[in-house]
Amino acid sequence: MNEQRIRWDDLQIVWAIADTGTLSGAGRRLGISHATVFRRLTDMEERLGVALFERSRTGYSPSPAGEDLAAVANRVETDIVAAERRLAGKDLKLSGSIRVTTTDTLFTGLLAPIFSDFRSNYPEISLEVVISNQIHSLSKREADIAIRPTRNPPETLIGRRVGDIALAVYGQRVKWQTERRPLSITDLSEQPWVGPDVHMGDTTLEKWMSEGGRAAQCHYRVDTMHGMQVAARGGSGITVLPCYLGDADPQLVRLSEPVPALTTELWMLTHPDLRHVTRIRRFMDEVGERLRRT
């Protein structure tokens, strides 16, 4: 094999198939059809004179040669992303794009008006907002900045704690408006609850729900805070919500004091290579200050 026979596009094909195990999965990752993936893989194997994958009914398993090329692709991709970050670090202008990842509740409950003001103040900066409850990799440039509740921010990232997110118990206003509040958690434990589904990934909230008999009263589970909010709004049970979300909902009423065990730190994080980028620094300073005041 010589360097003329292997291109970066070839390495991406091998890496995608090895990582997903199927041609269709590789095609979805690369944004091409599975037929194109098959054709390019076949062409590559013919040029190199070696089988890169073993085919079976369950998918594609890399041969030793395929594993070697997939490892090379991983290293090359890491080098390319690192080079992009270093080049981005030389950007001293208040222009360009910022890709921010955050959760759906934070965006609708806190960030949307703050982002709107930032765009008005810096019209030459484009915001790309990834609203997801899944963690996106800042190391691979899936996002430039993460604004997320976390009790353990990754040590590989830098940033600042911009505040704490308090959570309390909420119920349908028309049902609870005549009750004297706040009520104790013990008084509320025997009520029907709307709780987090395991796929939501909030282990602290799951553990709290399992205490005091609350889990036994929870027969309705949802995998997002917004879903829990809507279910409680409809009278399906009481639920735990961030106070910035529950207090702003006119159809809900806060039933308890904030629960100390559920308080979560709110962090703004970025990759160390981006800390000197002017637009990144300005965004973190101004948006972080707004969040601290909020």
UniProtKB/TrEMBL annotation:
InterPro entries: LysR-type_TF_proteobact-type, LysR_HTH_N, LysR_subst-bd, WH-like_DNA-bd_sf, WH_DNA-bd_sf. It comes from the Bacteria. Residues 6-63 form the HTH lysR-type domain. The keyword Transcription regulation applies. Keywords: DNA-binding, Transcription, Transcription regulation. The keyword Transcription regulation applies. Signal peptide: none annotated. Belongs to the LysR transcriptional regulatory family. This is LysR family transcriptional regulator. It comes from Marinobacter albus.
